[in-house]
Design a protein that fits this description.
heterodimer, B: alpha+beta, 54% helix
C-alpha cells in the first residue's frame, strides 16, 4: 500500500466512495452476470426435473462436470483463507489491501461449490441426507468413509470462513454506521447499527477482537490445508488408476492456492481500475501475488511430471495405460493422416499443461508482473487451466479403469455446460453486489498499516 | 445499565493520547480508551493487558476433539459392521472428524467468547451517552473515558487539556 498521502480520514472517504451510487456500467456488468445466473437456475431446473439421465454421466463414469466444478470452486475458495489467515500469521503486509475481497470470494466460492454435491446426488430435495444422522434403526453413517470426511471438512470450512469474514467486517460496519450518521444518512445508519454489534472501538473490544482474530487465523491455517487434502482423499483413498497416489494432498492444496490467487487477480485487477485503487492495490501487491502464483505453478508442474514418473516406475500396467490415455487418447495404430478420435480428457490435459505450466512462465519477468493487463490475461488462463486440471483428474481415470471392457467416454451435455457457465454467474453476481454493499477492503487494517497521526517525534 | 459520572476527551494525535493515558494511569485510574484502529502504542500505555479468550478457545477446541474421536468410536461400537479384518474403532479415519470438530468448536466459541468478554467489559465500564453520539472515533480521533467523582473532574479536565486534548466533556448522568 502506498502510505505517503493516506490519513485515517482519507481512508474512510476513499472506501466509502466505493459504496456510492455506481456508474451505469456497473449495472450493465451486473446484468451480464445475472443473465449467467439465470442460465444456472434454468439449467438446474431442467436437470432436476428430467433427472440425471440428462447429464453426460454414465456407467462407469459417475463423476463428471459436477464433481469437477465442486473441486474447482473449493480450490478457488482457498486463496481467501490463505491471504487472510496464513499471510496474517506470516506478517505479509501486502495482504492488507486484498484480503477482504479474497475472504468474500472464499465465502461465495464455497457456497457455489456446496451446490454441486447436492446437485450431483440427482435428488437435491434429499440433500439433507448428507448430514450425519442415524436412520430409523439408529444406524449411524460410516465415519470411516472419505465422503463423510468431506462433509465435515467442507461444512467446517464454510462455517469458519463465514465467521472469519463476518468477524473482520464488524469494525468496518461500525465505521459505516458512524459515517452514515455523520453525513446525515439516517436510513443507512439505522441499517448498519444492528450489524455493527455495538462496536465503539474501546480498548476492551480491540483487546478481545485482535486476540480472537489471531486465534481464528491460527485455526484457519491448518484448516485451509486440510480441506483440499480431504477433498483429494475422496480420490486418493480409492484404488482407481490415476487417483490412488500419496501426492494428491499437496498436489490439490498447491493447485487450490494457485487457482485461488489467480481468481483473486482476475477479480481485483478490474476492481482496482474501476475504483481507482492504485494507491491501495499497488503494483507491489500484484507482484507479490504473482510470485506466489509462480511458486505454486512450479509445484503443480512438478506434480504433473512426477505423476507420469510414478506411473512408469510403479510398473503397474493400469497406471501406465492411464497416463498414456490422458495426453494421447486410446492406444490405437498411429497413422499420418490420422483417424484418431480426440477425447475430452485429451483436450483437458493439453489445456491444463498450457495454461498452468507454460502460460505462467512470463511471470518470471519483472516487466510482465508489473503489467496488470498481462497479469490479468495470464491469471484468466490459469483459471481455465485449473478447471481443466480438475476435469483431467475427475474424468479421465473413470474412463480408463482396470478392464478394457469397461472403458467408456464422457462428453458433457448442454445442461451440464449451462450449469458450469452459470456457476460463474452465481459467483460473480454475489461478488459484484458485495463490492457495492460492503467495504471491499478492511478499513481498520488499512489504517493500522499507515503512519499514525503524530504531533512530535516518531511513533513507537 | 450503569450511569456514568466522569470525564471524557478526544485527541487528534496518537503520541499526546498515549502520554495522557500514562498520566491518568499514574493517578491510579484505569481509563477506557477508544481508537479508530488497534495501536501497540495504546497497548503499551495501558500496560499490555491480557484476555482470557485463549483459554475459552483451548477448552472448547479440546471438547470438539474429544467429541470428534469419541462419537464415531461409539457409533462404530454400538452397531458393529466388520469389513474384512479392518479395525472397528479405527483411529486414523476418526482423526479427520476429530480435527474438523476441534477447529469448528474452537472457532465458534472463540467468536462467542469475543462477544461475551467484550459485553462483560462494556457492562463493567459504562460509556457516557454523549460519547456514543460522537461519530469520529471510527474515523480519525482517539478518545479517553475517565470514571470519577464530580469533585475530581476538574483535575482530570486540566490534566487532559495539558496533554493536548482537543475537546473535554464532564458528564454526570
Amino acid at each position: 500500500m502506498s502510505k505517503s498521502n493516506l490519513t485515517y480520514g482519507k481512508i474512510n472517504d476513499d472506501m466509502l466512495a466505493m459504496l456510492e451510487t455506481p456508474h451505469p456500467s456497473y449495472y450493465l456488468l451486473l446484468l451480464g452476470f445475472l443473465t449467467a445466473l439465470g442460465l444456472f437456475v434454468i439449467s438446474i431446473a431442467i436437470q432436476v426435473d428430467v433427472g440425471m439421465g440428462y447429464s453426460g454421466i454414465n456407467h462407469p463414469i459417475g463423476w463428471g462436470f459436477y464433481i469437477t466444478n465442486f473441486v474447482f470452486w473449493i480450490g478457488i475458495g482457498h486463496a481467501g483463507t490463505l491471504i487472510s489467515a496464513v499471510f496474517y500469521l506470516t506478517r505479509a503486509p501486502w495482504r492488507t489491501a486484498i484480503y477482504r475481497s479474497a475472504e468474500a470470494m472464499t465465502v461465495f466460492a464455497v457456497m457455489t461449490a456446496g451446490l454441486f454435491p447436492i446437485l450431483h446426488t440427482g435428488r437435491p430435495w434429499l440433500g439433507f441426507w448428507l448430514i450425519p444422522y442415524p436412520n430409523q434403526r439408529m444406524l449411524w453413517i460410516n465415519f470411516k468413509s472419505p465422503l463423510a470426511w468431506d462433509v465435515f471438512a467442507v461444512t467446517t470450512y464454510m462455517t469458519v470462513s463465514i465467521l472469519f469474514f463476518v468477524m473482520g467486517l464488524v469494525p468496518d460496519l461500525a465505521i459505516l454506521r458512524d459515517e452514515a450518521t455523520r453525513r446525515g444518512q439516517k436510513l443507512r445508519a439505522l441499517i448498519f447499527t444492528p450489524f455493527a454489534m455495538a462496536w465503539r472501538g474501546t480498548n476492551h473490544q480491540w483487546l478481545h477482537y485482535m486476540r480472537g482474530y489471531l486465534i481464528f487465523a491460527a485455526l484457519a491455517t491448518p484448516l485451509v490445508f486440510s480441506v483440499h487434502s480431504i477433498v483429494s482423499w475422496d480420490f486418493a483413498v480409492s484404488s482407481i488408476p490415476g487417483w490412488h497416489t500419496t501426492i494428491f494432498a499437496p498436489y490439490f492444496v498447491s493447485g487450490a492456492i494457485f487457482s485461488g490467487l489467480a481468481m483473486v487477480m482476475t477479480v481485483l485487477i478490474p476492481v482496482r481500475v474501476v475504483f481507482n485503487l492504485e494507491a491501495y492495490i499497488t503494483n507491489h501487491v500484484i507482484q507479490s501475488v504473482c510470485k506466489v502464483i509462480l511458486f505454486t505453478s512450479c509445484i503443480v508442474g512438478y506434480a504433473y511430471g512426477i505423476e507420469f514418473f510414478m506411473a512408469y516406475y510403479s510398473g503397474s500396467p493400469f497406471e501406465r495405460s492411464l497416463f498414456y490415455y490422458r495426453p494421447f487418447g486410446a492406444m490405437v495404430g498411429w497413422n499420418l493422416l490420422g483417424t484418431h478420435e480426440i477425447t475430452f480428457p485429451q483436450i483437458a490435459f493439453w489445456l491444463m499443461i498450457f495454461c498452468n505450466v507454460i502460460a505462467p512462465l512470463p511471470l518470471w519477468r519483472w516487466k510482465i508482473r508489473n503489467n496488470v493487463i498481462c497479469v490479468w490475461i495470464i491469471c484468466g488462463l490459469i483459471n481455465v487451466g485449473m478447471w481443466f486440471e480438475r476435469f483431467n483428474i475427475v474424468g479421465s481415470s473413470l474412463q480408463h479403469e482396470f478392464l478394457p471392457s469397461t472403458w467408456s467416454s464422457y462428453w458433457p451435455t448442454v445442461i451440464e455446460t449451462g450449469i458450469t457457465i452459470g456457476s460463474f454467474g452465481f459467483f460473480f453476481t454475489m461478488f459484484t453486489i458485495f463490492v457495492k454493499t460492503l467495504p471491499p477492503m478492511a478499513i481498520m487494517e488499512l489504517k493500522e498499516a499507515i503512519q499514525p497521526p503524530i504531533k512530535g517525534g516518531h511513533h513507537e | 445499565m450503569s450511569r456514568f459520572t466522569g470525564v471524557w476527551a478526544t485527541f487528534e494525535y496518537l503520541d499526546e493520547f498515549s502520554n495522557a493515558i500514562r498520566a491518568v494511569k499514574n493517578k491510579g485510574v484505569v481509563p477506557t480508551v477508544l481508537s479508530p484502529c488497534p495501536r501497540h502504542e495504546i497497548d503499551n500505555a495501558m500496560g499490555n493487558p491480557e484476555t482470557r479468550l485463549p483459554y475459552i478457545s483451548l477448552v472448547f477446541g479440546a471438547l470438539g476433539c474429544l467429541i470428534g474421536f469419541s462419537f464415531p468410536a461409539w457409533t462404530a461400537s454400538d452397531w458393529v459392521l466388520p469389513v474384512s479384518e479392518k479395525a472397528i474403532v479405527a483411529i486414523p479415519p476418526f482423526a479427520v472428524i476429530g480435527f474438523e470438530l476441534t477447529i469448528l468448536f474452537a472457532a465458534l466459541f472463540t467468536l462467542l467468547g469475543v462477544i461475551g468478554l467484550a459485553t462483560w467489559d462494556a457492562l463493567k465500564n459504562p460509556l457516557p451517552k454523549a460519547l456514543k453520539r460522537y461519530v469520529r472515533f471510527q474515523r480519525d480521533r482517539f478518545g479517553i473515558v475517565i470514571p470519577c467523582d464530580l469533585r475530581h473532574t476538574k483535575d482530570y479536565e486540566n490534566l487532559l487539556i495539558s496533554h493536548g486534548a482537543e475537546e473535554v466533556y464532564i458528564e454526570n448522568e
